[in-house]
Design goal:
The protein is globular and about 60 Å long. The chain has 2 domains: 137 residues, NAD(P)-binding Rossmann-like Domain (Rossmann fold); 185 residues, Dihydrodipicolinate Reductase, domain 2. The strands form 3 sheets. A 6-stranded parallel β-sheet has the order 5-2-1-6-7-8, with helices on both faces. The protein has a 6-stranded mixed β-sheet with strand order 10-9-11-14-13-12. Strands 3-4 form a two-stranded antiparallel sheet. Helix 1 packs across helix 8, helix 3 crosses helix 5 and helix 3 packs across helix 8. The protein is an alpha/beta fold. The protein is built from 8 helices and 14 strands.
């Protein structure tokens, strides 16, 4: 099997480290690996398959000879370095929001629109974590029953805001028990024993940027420009694993039994739906897993053709790192590198 030169930009972050773990677990065919980060993180050592790699400062030369570059360093760095990496011959799979809504940049979830990788022009966007798990769960139903409307409330883990936010939750929880005061550094408000009904900045329409990502990205990924999406995104004191309460309205009638049957055979979906025996997905139980878990499937009482469900996934893996690596695997499958 052919092997490839792979670079990871943002290798020292929570998602970058998870990318390395996923590449190793999936035995991705790597010839040469380069770990890149800012000057501040350069020089650190990270182990991969028993070998220690030194993190290099990102530079144009760092992308020389690279086939696939996995980016998880934020939008501003992606806008600077992605075009440079492409110019050097790499295909960039970018985890930020920098290019997601660009018309010529595919936005890919392999279980939904794998063929879209074939139209890339050097950059492929990895969708928002909350969008990924939602479309994996909803697209199989959309194919059968055509979804008209989605109402979603998210319960998002602090790891979605990075390693520093995870530290905020740890330190503030300790402080609460010790009767001390702690000011979070990565979050807009107190997170210990609290929920924050804001993720990213507020926009003029009253929704946050995170909520509008779910609106716009869902339509693009599912090639369904008419789907109506209303999202409320909330940060909760959970370390890893996003949960979502989702209600959909379909064009054609659907029963909970039909939905369970559809989802049980859908790629990347595991149905855990036996409420009487306390069987339903929870973030603490999906950590470290790559599937999207669905439970509490029931007929919705507000819409005639309505269905409600509970969807949970590991946001660092399927919501970010695993989806990016799956895209890289598609590039190999379609001989695009």
């Amino acid at each position: 099997m052919k092997s490839y030169n792979v670079a990871i930009l943002g290798a020292t972050g929570a998602v970058g480290k998870t990318m390395l773990k996923v590449l190793e677990e999936r035995n991705f065919p790597i010839e040469e690996l380069r770990l890149l980060a800012s000057e501040r993180s350069a020089g650190k050592e990270i182990e991969f398959k028993g070998t220690k790699y030194k993190v290099e400062p990102v530079s144009p030369e760092a992308f020389e000879g690279i086939d696939i570059a996995l980016f998880s360093a934020g939008s501003s760095r992606s806008k600077i370095w992605a075009p440079i990496a492409v110019e050097k011959g790499a295909v960039v799979i970018d985890n930020s929001s920098a290019f997601r809504m660009e018309p010529e940049v595919p936005l890919v979830v392999p279980e939904v629109n794998p063929e879209d990788v074939q139209i890339h022009k050097g950059i492929i966007a990895n969708p928002n974590c909350s969008t990924i798990q939602m479309v994996v769960a909803l697209y199989p139903i959309h194919k059968e029953k055509k979804i008209k409307r989605i109402i979603v409330s998210t319960y998002q883990a602090v790891s979605g805001a990075g390693a520093k936010a995870m530290e905020d939750l740890t330190e503030e929880t300790k402080a609460k028990f010790e009767g001390k005061y702690y000011i979070p550094e990565a979050l807009p408000a107190s997170i210990a024993f609290n929920v924050i009904p804001r993720i990213d900045v507020f926009l003029e329409n009253g929704y946050t940027k995170e909520e509008m990502k779910m609106f716009n990205e869902t339509r693009k990924i599912m090639h369904a420009p008419d789907i109506k999406v209303s999202a409320t995104c909330v940060r909760v004191p959970v370390f890893i694993g996003h949960s979502e309460s989702i209600t959909i309205e379909t064009e054609y009638p659907i029963t909970p039994e039909e939905a369970r049957q559809i989802l049980s055979s859908a790629p990347g979906v595991i149905v855990e739906d036996d409420p009487e025996n306390n069987v339903y997905p929870m973030p603490i139980e999906v950590e470290g897993k790559d599937d999207v878990f669905v439970g509490r499937i029931r007929k919705d009482l507000a819409f005639d053709n309505g269905l409600s469900m509970w969807v949970v996934a590991d946001n660092l893996r399927k919501g970010a790192a695993t989806n990016a690596v799956q895209i890289a695997e598609l590039l190999i499958k379609y001989a695009m590198v």
